[in-house]
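Re: weekly structure request thread

Next one in the queue (222 aa):
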Amino acid sequence: MKKDERALRQAIIDKCLWMNASGFNQGTSGNISARWRDRMLVTPSATPYDQLTPELICSMAIDDDSGAWDGPLKPSTEWRFHRDILRARPDAGAVVHTHSTFATVLAIARREIPSCHYMIAAFGGDEIRCADYATYGTPELSANALKALEGRNGCLLANHGMIAMGANLDKAMWLAVELETIARQYYHSLMLPGGPVLLSKAEIADTSRGFATYGLQDRKPA
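Done, posted below.
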């Protein structure tokens, strides 16, 4: 295993450990993938994160439909939507899936998140969609997720959780945290008299234009 690949595998583990230590995720319910050349590195199924080593991260060919993997453990039951997102979205370098509390609460209610906060613009539009329900791990769930992610970097999964994708692992996790934060804020605003006041499409578009130099940026070469 090359040094760079091993480092990416360890970075996936580090993100998983952070998710649970911070309360952002619970148990082994979440999963993370990252693009490595023409392959996908993805967390294995039902394995406690504190037991993971780089060798236990699964490797799958992105263009292979067989579901075959390399590694001692089988991949996450959600490997299909991870692979399909990386296949359909060349702009995606990593995918984070969690059952974070407030995103999942809204997903249970099958609510999209409207333009309640300007950070919605970081996801590519003026709402965060909620994908239709399908059983976990199925081609139907993958298709529903891809539809909800059209032109977007994140979505909710009905009665399930959320997905965030980014150009790299750090950006995907940053967006996952932003999605959960907006979900929490939106949930609480619904409890106030009159509910949330939404931003207009023009206001979100204006914010989007400013995001070229906002948020987690790639470092310039030394």
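The radius of gyration is 17 Å. The longest helix spans residues 169-189.
Next request, please.
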